[in-house]
Amino acid sequence: MTALDRALKYLNIKPRTRHQVEQYLKGKEYAEDEIAEALAQLEEYHYIDDLNFARMYIELGFEKGRGMARIRRELSEKGVNRDTIAAAIDELEELPDEYEMALKIGRNIVGGIDVSALEYEDIQKLRAKIARRLAGRGYTGDVAYKVAKECTDK
User: Fold this and answer.
1) Is the distance from CB of 134 to CB of 102 less than 8 angstroms?
2) Which residues make Cβ contacts (< 8 Å) with residue 103, sequence separation at least 6?
3) Quick one: 65 exposed, middle or buried, by C-beta within 10 A (0-12, 13-18, 19+)?
4) Cα separation of 61 and 54, whole Å?
């Protein structure tokens, strides 16, 4: 099977970045020149397009409630360079307000808890829980702190 055929089968599963396809083909021990030729063809026919991939990934990340820091890190881990990530962000028509997204998540965590009935230590534990959850989703520390505080103020 040629490198191009193997790459097409790999891309048929789900969209991938150039770097991911390249690493996959290297793992299958294709020659460097064959990999380069396959990648060039895939890019020419837009089977791989890191800018488009980044745009879709950012939109999906927001839909899943992820913060921009996490989205950037994950794209970088997938081999998308910083300039391409920045271009993808610039091309998006509308970026959601991260604070509002984080606040919604924080309010869901608090749920039906009557914060005014909690002791100081319990409020601190709840704030920490909210901040940890938001940090895990890729929100910055300042956003996580503000949301945790707002959601637990009596």
Assistant:
1) yes
2) 147, 150, 151
3) middle
4) 10
Token reading at 26: 């290297």
**Does the predicted model carry a pTM greater than 0.85?**
no
In one-letter notation, the amino acid at residue 32 is: E
| H or E, element range at 84 | helix 82-91
- pLDDT tens track for 49-88: 999 999 999 999 999 999 999 999 999 999 999 999 999 9
Cβ burial, residue 134 (10 Å; 0-12/13-18/19+): buried
Place of tokens 């970088």: 76
**Tokens representing 131?**
């901040």
What the block records as the tokens of 59 is 């939109």
Cα separation of the two ends of the chain? 65
